[in-house]
Design a protein that fits this description.
With 97 residues, the chain is mainly alpha-helical. It is built from three helices and no strands. α1 runs antiparallel to α2.
Length: 97
């Protein structure tokens, strides 16, 4: 247990930051889930819009040091890869005449 005033203050600050960071990470996870549901519905427009929102959220979280910048970049890259594969499947399927 902390005894000095500065150590007690640091404990209080850590609790506050932990709550903020958890909330931000939860928002990212929720946004990713929305993107995945848009992908599973095979709607390219909806998935593209959700990807834009996920990328925006990841950039904001990485800018505040809640998540490392390279972690956010890796997540964005993997999600973009899935979106691009959906777009590729849509263009490969023969169009009904």
């Amino acid at each position: 247990m902390a005894h000095s005033l500065s150590a007690k203050k640091r404990v209080r600050q850590n609790v506050k930051r932990r709550l903020i960071n958890r909330a931000r990470k939860s928002q990212v996870k929720t946004q990713i889930k929305r993107f995945e549901t848009a992908l599973s519905s095979a709607s390219i427009e909806a998935a593209s819009e959700q990807y834009r929102l996920v990328a925006q959220k990841l950039d904001k979280v990485a800018a505040t040091s809640t998540m490392h910048k390279k972690t956010a970049a890796r997540k964005k890259s993997r999600l973009a890869k899935r979106l691009n594969s959906l777009k590729a499947k849509a263009t490969q399927q023969p169009q009904p005449s």
